[in-house]
Amino acid sequence: MIRADHISKSFEGRTVLNDISVEFDTGKTNLIIGRSGSGKTVLLKSLVGLHDVDLGKIYYDDVCYTDLGFKERKAIRKDIGMIFQGGALLDSSTVRENVRLPLDLFTEMSEGEKRDRVDFCLERVRLVGADHLYPSELSGGMVKRVAIARAIVLNPRYLFCDEPNSGLDPQTSVVIDNLIHEITKEFNITTIINTHDMNSVMEIGEKIVYIHEGNKWWEGTKDDILLSDNAELNDFVFASAMAKRAKMVAK
Amino acid sequence: MIKLFEHIGRYFMLLSKVFSRPEKMRIYRSRIWFEVEALGFNSISLTAIISAFIGAVVALQMAITLESPFIPQFMIGYSTREVMVLEFSSTVVALILAGKVGSNIASEIGTMRITEQIDALEIMGVNSASYLILPKIVATVIFFPILTLFSIIVGILGGFAIAYLTGIMLTGDYIEGLFYCFEPFSFTYALVKGAVFAFIITSISAYCGYYAKGNSLEVGRASTKAVVASSVTIMIFDLILTQIMRV
To answer: Does the N terminus or the C terminus of chain A have fewer Cβ atoms within 10 A?
Structure first.
């Protein structure tokens, strides 16, 4: 479980997150949704510790992450996997080297054990046979899958995904969504996904938090969205005329 | 002025991160070898070409300038050696490498910053500054003095070649000049300068890249800043080292 308790963050006097309190459940795919520039990415990066919050606390299973020093945070970070918007694979390393890096740095595994673990992760994301390729030789979907493999190689307890579907076609997006959802269930991970892809919301969203202009505007499940009367949420989720009609039918 | 002090403060804070205890030495050793190849071996051809031509030009200029019955011919070899050892092979080669290696480091690390590769390392719990920058610093500090020595040898050979090919002087006189008033400490001086300049180029360029923000335009700006800042710092330290180590 990850909990944010009244967190606020501003950059050069501009408030980006305003007094947000939210809890993300273990074993569920928790989604943060909102318009571009609403503060989703800052919220995600604050939760993960890439931004220090100005006010409030962040808890990882009752451990106050914000109060920890660099060394103690490092211990928790080994339990964190993160998938970045662009994949963030190391350009000068092959797929295998990218996935293997955390094992090299933080485990005492033998060469054979490392090879087996990397093979398992690549197999899990259906990327067998691509281990010798460099990131520049991969398609967008493959980059995301390598990023997932790297994120899960150390068996993380928390998985963060920043717009995992951006730049992907709808079919590949579904594949990536399902993969993240399966991994969440399989390893009982607390997964937090930052997205504005409505297909993802309807496919895998078990808990959804809507961020509007830096504030938590709405929280619920995907079924609640269909019945919600929140005007901003409805404007965002059912932006197209077809989606609005679909909502009326659902209601 | 305040901005300058801010940069200096941040630079030293970054260095303290770079020199904190590495996660696993074994990984660093393999990365150092990788950087020796990328930053060192790949600079050999450029250094060789420039040094050979400068050595030849210096010998030619000296032959023209020192053309007098009162000045012995071996002074051309002597002057070429002194120019190469004392200034060219350490300082000028460092300035050239600040352009090649410095911009390479700044753009590589800057690109890693804007494509979130550095964030990805941080999330994994890796000290990204140490992991990315320390191997580069170690590799260049070890390899640049070797490159300096190489440049001295190639430059002197360039002077010899021009003497031999054009007949502006006897090659025997040139060689005699190379050993005239030979002071071994001047080589130590050149090698120390090579190591110090390597540190300056690598650390400043890495700093410029590490704190790059925004998009690819900013990476370009970071590279330019890296070259300018490294070059100016090299000149300042050239003066300081020459004063301290006066040969």
So the answer is: C
Contact A48/B123, CB-based, under 8 Å? yes
- CA-nearest residue to A47 within chain B is B123
| Spatial separation of the C-alpha atoms in residues A163 and A66, rounded to whole Å | 24
Q: Kindly give, in sequence order, each residue whose CB lies less than 8 Å from that of residue A57, ignoring residues fewer than 6 positions away.
A: A4, A5, A6, A7, A64, A65, A66, A67
The answer to whether A204 and A181 have CB atoms below 8 angstroms apart is: yes
- Asked if B123's CB is within 8 angstroms of A86's CB, the reply is no
- Helix or strand run (H / E) with residue A6: strand A2-11
Query: For residue A160, what are its two tokens?
Result: 């963060």
Chain CA centroid to CA A33, Å: 11
Dump the DSSP string for A199-220.
HHHHHH-SEEEEEETTEEEEEE
Q: Which two tokens stand for residue B2?
A: 């305040």
Q: Using N-to-C axis directions, what is the helix angle for B25-35 and B128-166, rounded to 10°?
A: 30
pLDDT digits (tens, 9 = 90+) for A69-120: 877 888 888 899 999 988 899 998 999 999 999 999 888 899 999 999 999 9
